[in-house]
Design goal:
The complex is a heterodimer of chains A (138) and B (125). Chain A has 138 residues and is mainly alpha-helical. Chain A has 4 helices and no strands. In chain A, helix 2 packs antiparallel against helix 3. The chains are: A mainly alpha (138), B mainly alpha (125).
């Protein structure tokens, strides 16, 4: 498994835990009193689990298992693009979370924009690798 | 495919059908409690269960002796996640507080068991 996939997948596992923690607190709040302010975290629960966990996991696994171009370091396309996608996606998740919690829509827009760039960067990397399996020249 | 993966995948398929059946009821004007139940049957039961099962099967081996990590943790993640989700399905319509709190704790423990067991398997060669 390449290093960038390790970071993407381990990052996704951390968001799984963080997202489930928020979800558990909110669900428990239907049975026992919780601070009312906790419900402001509901969009963060969505963001952590949908983007941080699911999207990031898919990105990490796709970069790891899609057909390669050979056995060299460049076999998975431009590795720098994958690292850039990792940084943009995680930066985006936190900007969205901070924007929602701090009631700063501009931050959330910046975060979403970073996530779009992460998606485009990852798509550029994986696009050419979406082909028949087997090692073939680039 | 290891037996635990088969259990995860088959149960996730049951949740998939149940969630979309719930969404039909929802579209026909179902009760308010149905929305969170349907969403969580889909994203926890179907999507998360499927991922947990396939990751247990396909991720790099932990070691020769324990290729899929600690089996006890993996089984615990299956039991806790699914028991927690089922308690939510039972508890949400009647708003049974203790059932929902128990459900929250069990689902969190199930996710934590999966993360602890999977983390060391996410590695380079």
């Amino acid at each position: 498994m390449p290093a960038v996939s390790v970071w993407l997948i381990r990052g996704s596992l951390l968001y799984l835990l963080a997202g489930f923690t928020l979800g558990a607190l909110l669900l428990a709040g239907k049975g026992v009193p919780i601070p009312a302010g906790l419900w402001h975290w509901l969009p963060v629960h969505f963001e952590f689990l949908l983007v941080g966990w699911l999207v990031q996991l898919v990105m990490g696994v796709a970069y790891w298992i899609f057909p390669r171009f050979g056995l060299t370091r460049a076999a998975r396309g431009r590795e720098g693009f994958a690292w850039l996608a990792f940084v943009l996606l995680n930066g985006g998740v936190w900007l969205v979370a901070l924007g929602v919690l701090g009631d700063q829509p501009a931050l959330a827009v910046m975060g979403r924009s970073a996530e779009v760039l992460a998606a485009a960067t990852m798509a550029m990397n994986v696009w050419a690798r979406t082909r028949a399996s087997g090692i073939s020249p680039m | 495919m290891p037996p635990l993966t088969r259990w995860f995948v088959k149960l996730s398929l049951v949740y998939f059908v149940a969630a979309l059946t719930g969404s039909v009821w929802q579209a026909a004007g179902g009760p308010l409690w149905l929305t969170p139940v349907t969403i969580h049957l889909l994203v926890v039961g179907w999507v998360t269960g499927m991922i947990f099962g396939v990751a247990y099967w396909m991720f790099p081996k932990f070691s020769t002796e324990q290729p899929r990590g600690a089996n006890g943790l993996a089984v615990a993640s299956f039991v806790l996640l699914n028991l927690g989700l089922l308690l939510r399905v039972v508890g949400e319509p009647r708003a049974v507080g203790w059932l929902l709190v128990t459900s929250a704790v069990l689902q969190w423990l199930g996710a934590a068991a999966f993360v602890v067991n999977t983390w060391p398997r996410v590695k380079g060669r």
